[in-house]
Input
Amino acid sequence: MSGEWWIDILKAFIVGGAFCLIGQLLFDIAKLTPAHTMSIMVTAGSILGGFGIYAKLADWAGAGATLPIISFGNMLVLGALEGAKSDGFWGIWTGILGGVSAGIAASVFFAFVIALIFKPKT
Amino acid sequence: MVKKPKVASWYDPIIKSHGTPRPLAKNCLAAFCFGGALCAVAQFFQLLISQIAGVSDKDAAAIVMIIVIALAALLTGLGVFDKIAQQVGAGLAVPITGFANSIASSTLEFKSEGYVLGSGCNGFKLAGAVIFFGIGSAVVVALIALILGLV
Output
């Protein structure tokens, strides 16, 4: 951690905060449900990913761009395009889940552990 | 049935002043600050891990994401997640914490109907939408890129 490391953290704060702000506006002004908001954001992420815009943003903002759910769509597209690069059409299907593997695997596994340990609160 | 008077009466401003206005600005500020702080903390640990463990930025990002997901699931199990989410709204819903919470909460909620029919069949209630539209749109985008010869 040398040099201007705090600038990276500031960038992550601004970009991550901005995405959450957009999400809050979709909740409060557009009156969308969380499911609709998430679906729109993921779809937007894959479109931005297709243009290569999101990868540039992720380079610049680090976790500020990779932690929001929009990154999920971007990673799906990046995986699909990487597969397409090496294996053509069929590579889309084999490569698409590569990038999101950690997110899905961890979410499912820890959810299962939590369900084993805890009791529902209500 | 009480009918609302059509004409504005002297007590209208008083009613207005006592009602709770939609705290849009407050909600937005909370979402921005909390969501931003969450990403900033993640970025800090990402830099720290890549520096100490000597792993690549990509691996460090995955490690931090897995830890964040584990914490979100734990807070969901403890019943704390919803309380924080009520205060910060999208600040906790938009980052991967929202995705992790949606799976953890529905897995836990439907536990009473059994691990297979309850947790297993209902775990992806909200996350299913994310995966459904994510993969759907990603395939379309990748196909367009392939057809246009951009790959």
About this structure: The mean pLDDT of chain A is 94. The longest helix of chain A spans residues 5-28.
